[in-house]
Amino acid sequence: MKSFTRMVLIAGLIAAPVASFAQSSQSVSRAQVRAELTQVEKAGYDPRDYVHYPENIQAAEAKVEAQNATVQAATSGYGGASNGTSRSGTASGL
Fold first, then answer.
1. What's 27-75 look like in SS3?
2. Torsion angle of alpha carbons 28, 31, 34, 39, nearest 10°?
3. Torsion-angle region of residue 29: left (phi > 0), alpha (psi -120 to 50) or beta?
4. Residues 61/37, Cβ–Cβ less than 8 Å
5. Confidence check: pLDDT of 86 > 70
6. What is the mean pLDDT of residues 42-55?
7. What is d(CA 40, CA 32) in angstroms, rounded to the nearest whole number?
8. Which of 7, 29, 33, 43 could hold 60 in an S-S bridge, CB 3.0 to 4.6 Å?
9. Residue 77: which pLDDT band, with cuts at 50, 70 and 90?
10. Is the dihedral of CA 83, 81, 69, 49 positive or negative?
11. How far is CA 28 from the centre of its chain?
12. What confidence tens digit (pLDDT) does each residue in 24-47 have?
């Protein structure tokens, strides 16, 4: 009986992280997944190119992330990063 209890306890310890990893805090609809896949495919991801799989999808996701960041910066009230310069203090030449 001790060995059975030990086996059940070990199985529970192994299954708990797997079950918690499989759950998501946000539910995603099928339409949202299809829209994200379409967006990644437009960014250059080819699902049939299994030879370059990790690099291919990571590059496409980076492009999508950059596009989303520029759209968000353009529509937010704060704006994006600026390449200009700024000064503070007293005016020169006075």
1. CCCHHHHHHHHHHHHHCCCCCCCCCCHHHHHHHHHHHHHHHHHHHHHHH
2. -90
3. beta
4. no
5. no
6. 88
7. 12
8. 43
9. low
10. positive
11. 14
12. 667 888 999 899 989 999 998 888
Cβ–Cβ under 8 Å, residues 72 and 62:
no
Task: Report the C-alpha gap between 61 and 48 in whole angstroms.
Answer: 16
What residue has token string 């992330």?
65
AA identity, residue 78 = Y
Q: Would you mind telling me the total number of residues written for the chain in this entry?
A: 94
Q: Token digits for 81?
A: 């990063």
Residue recorded with tokens 């086996």: 7
80 neighbors 70 (Cβ within 8 angstroms)? yes
